[in-house]
Amino acid sequence: MQGNLGRNSITGFGMYQIDLALRRDFALAGRGTFQIRIEAFNALNHPSFADPFRFLSSPLFGQSPSMLSMMLGTGSPGSGLTPIFQSGGARSVQVSLRFRF
Length: 101
Hints:
By secondary structure, the chain is mainly β. The chain has a domain of 63 residues. It has one helix and three strands; from the N terminus they run E-E-H-E. A hairpin with a 5-residue loop joins strand 1 and strand 2.
C-alpha cells in the first residue's frame, strides 16, 4: 500500500568536510626543484553520517547508525578507495615528496 508522502520527503544528512593542503618548493643547485606537500582531509574530524533508516518497521527509523564513508562502498581490492580515504571518512593526512628536474 502506498502512502501520500511526497517524493524525497526524507533526506539524508549533509556532508561537511574541510580539506587543507600546504606546499613548499625548494630550488636546488642546478636545474632541479624539490617539493614537499602535506594534505589533511577532514581536518576538523567532523562526523558525516549516512542516510537515516527509511523503513517504518525498523526500530532505527530516522536514525543513522553508520558513517557516510561506509555507505559509499568499500571499494574494490587494490583500487585505493577504502572507506577511510573516501569523502565523509575520518581525518587522514598524506605527505608527498617530489623531485623535478
